[in-house]
Amino acid sequence: xxxxxxxxYKGFGNRSDxxxxxxxxxxxxEVREGERIAxxxxxxxxxxxxxxxxxxxxxxxxxxxxxxxxxxxxxSARELDLYRNRQIGFVFQFHHLLPQCTLLExxxxxxxxxxxxxxxxxxxxxxxxxxxxxxxxxxxxxxxGKLSGGECQRAAVVRAMINAPSILLADEPTGxxxxxxxxxxxxxxxxxxxxxSLTLLVVTHSLELAKRMGKIFRLQNxxxxxx
Length: 227
Ligand SMILES: Nc1ncnc2c1ncn2[C@@H]1O[C@H](COP(=O)(O)OP(=O)(O)OP(=O)(O)O)[C@@H](O)[C@H]1O
Ligand SMILES: [Mg+2]
Description:
By secondary structure, the protein is of the alpha/beta class.
């Protein structure tokens, strides 16, 4: 199993008073390599919280997150850093591109750490190949402010893919896109899944996008239920 979440509990606030809010409660999930999973759920149900735990950006209160049978909650700071940089690609709802950097610079950001000099050229070539594949190479020297939402979101996917991760975690990647761009994003994710056997975990409010995934779960009352 590529990824296994065992009986995860996660809440926010102070456990000893009324500020405590349980979010994930006894949540378990198994993800095989190359699977495509969609996660639906109302606002506040814990979808982003769940992606953050899988991506090593936060810790569960209880339970384990295993990646290739290793518990990432026990990783050292450096191991966690490498896991995030090498195994995980993150696509956020509002792309989070740096406004002062060109698209190409944005895409290469994750290669600024843990990438030796010899690898730099390889990454630059990969950036070119991926940007051409998603149709934004011609925009490589423009800053995000000069581009459409769909173009920026495609750049965000390329940035997430630049270090060839095992899993792509996408948090409402089509949240800010119109119908035509939703379809383009769905096709891009499917292509990455099929050609690069990339495992996909996609949080979305779009049923159109969810239907393109292999499995659909609904996050409800802190747990995932097949939808
Ligand atoms: N760092 C935090 N500190 C305190 N509360 C938090 C924190 N992060 C999330 N929460 C709370 O946990 C709950 C789940 O938040 P989360 O962001 O995971 O929801 P979501 O399902 O992603 O919602 P949306 O669809 O609106 O993005 C919410 O009630 C939120 O206010
Ligand atoms: Mg969210």
